[in-house]
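can u do me a favor
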């Protein structure tokens, strides 16, 4: 990760009141299972999920780089991330993977992106706006690219 520039992810406050990240209970179901090999005496206690990372800065960075050369955008993003997978949550790798919007989390949406034939990053549906979206429920605040929709 490039230390000269600000990272494109941030740690979520996991100690705040009311924030639940599904901690605990993972190890108690696997500790007495049979061993995978004779050499293995104890199982791993670390979990399989990564919790507490927010990639909203990455998604806003990618949205700001529409009509820019993809190779430059990708190399800069990869140098400022801990892993490359979140890039492809928004950017479609294939033509059939293109989506108008991508749901991140419970009520946050971002416009889908793809790389065109000229090698430039493009929006899948540029005319998509927050007023065109409908919320799944009335209890949450839904956003599309940071703009609230569905509430009065």
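np, heres the sequence
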């Amino acid at each position: 990760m490039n230390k000269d520039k600000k990272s494109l992810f941030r740690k979520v406050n996991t100690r705040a009141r009311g924030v639940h990240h599904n901690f605990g209970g993972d190890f108690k179901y696997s500790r007495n299972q049979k061993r995978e090999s004779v050499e293995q005496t104890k199982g791993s206690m670390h979990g399989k999920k990564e919790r507490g990372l927010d990639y909203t800065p990455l998604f806003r960075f990618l949205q700001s780089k529409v009509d820019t050369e993809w190779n430059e955008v990708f190399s800069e993003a990869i140098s400022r991330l801990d892993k490359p997978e979140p890039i492809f949550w928004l950017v479609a790798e294939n033509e059939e993977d293109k989506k108008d919007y991508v749901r991140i989390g419970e009520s946050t949406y971002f416009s889908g992106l793809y790389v065109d034939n000229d090698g430039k990053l493009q929006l899948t549906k540029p005319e998509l706006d927050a007023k065109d979206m409908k919320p799944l429920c009335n209890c949450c605040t839904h956003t599309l690219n940071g703009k609230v929709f569905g509430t009065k």
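The radius of gyration is 19 Å. hope that helps!!
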